[in-house]
Amino acid sequence: MTERIVVVGAALLDGGRLLAARRSAPPELAGRWELPGGKVEPGERPEAALVRELREELGVEAEAVERIPGSWPLRPPYELHVWTAHLRPGSAAPAPLEDHDELRWLTPSDIWTVPWLDQDVPAVRAALPRLGAASPDA
Ligand code: 523
């Protein structure tokens, strides 16, 4: 049996908004929006991977807050786990440094205005209540 490899995604929250990131690569994912993050490296704690990925991809200093219950299948052997996160005081504002070409802070009412990656949709739905939204069937 192949070991599963966790990909961590960040529900980066700020003032009731969620950060969405549009992928610029690879071609099959480009143009679709995701919760930013990446693969957990061997021996790495998922929270540390999240902080590292957000630093590399967005140039921010972030803190993982709590895991959103659930696990969403990606292309085998990967599976997506999502953590809420926030920017540390003094962090730079997020910028699309690699893998992304646009970022957007979404309020609960515009959360579905971007074409999320199919596999991120259930994770975004699970993250929505953390924004203070009450739309379980959006
Ligand atoms: N996803 C995905 N949704 C999502 C993330 C963070 C990742 O579907 N929110 C997928 C996309 C890739 C795989 O998970 O198929 C790994 O994500 P990637 O490429 O962002 O991970 P990295 O940055 O660790 O990958 P390397 O470029 O290989 O270092």
From TrEMBL:
InterPro entries: MutT-like (IPR047127), Nudix_hydrolase (IPR020476), NUDIX_hydrolase-like_dom_sf (IPR015797), NUDIX_hydrolase_CS (IPR020084), NUDIX_hydrolase_dom (IPR000086). It is an enzyme of class 3 (hydrolase). GO terms for molecular function: 8-oxo-7,8-dihydrodeoxyguanosine triphosphate pyrophosphatase activity; 8-oxo-7,8-dihydroguanosine triphosphate pyrophosphatase activity; 8-oxo-dGDP phosphatase activity; 8-oxo-GDP phosphatase activity; metal ion binding. Transmembrane segments: none annotated. It catalyses: 8-oxo-dGTP + H2O = 8-oxo-dGMP + diphosphate + H(+). Its EC number is 3.6.1.55. This is 8-oxo-dGTP diphosphatase. Belongs to the Nudix hydrolase family. It comes from the Bacteria. It comes from Streptomyces spiralis. GO terms for biological process: DNA repair; DNA replication. Residues 3-133 form the Nudix hydrolase domain. Gene3D superfamilies: Nucleoside Triphosphate Pyrophosphohydrolase (3.90.79.10). SUPFAM superfamilies: Nudix (SSF55811). Keywords: DNA damage, DNA repair, DNA replication, Hydrolase, Magnesium, Metal-binding, Mutator protein. Its cofactor is Mg(2+).
